[in-house]
Amino acid sequence: MLLDHHIRYKKQVYLGELLTIKTYPKTPEGIRQPRKVEFYCNGQLVVDSLTLWVFIDKETQQIIRLESDWLDIL
Fold this sequence. Notes:
By secondary structure, this protein is mainly beta.
């Protein structure tokens, strides 16, 4: 479930320009799982965003809390 989303637009991008998008998870904050998303154009950061997710078990509808070291397992 999406909890919060912040976007910072740093530079104008124009039709036809090629974008590179990078996304990666960050260390959990309690029940919140932050994910970073960055957009680059010509190697320059043009959009920076941070989204907070809360994972919900589809069957039980209960919150799933990730261990703080879950990224180390990957």
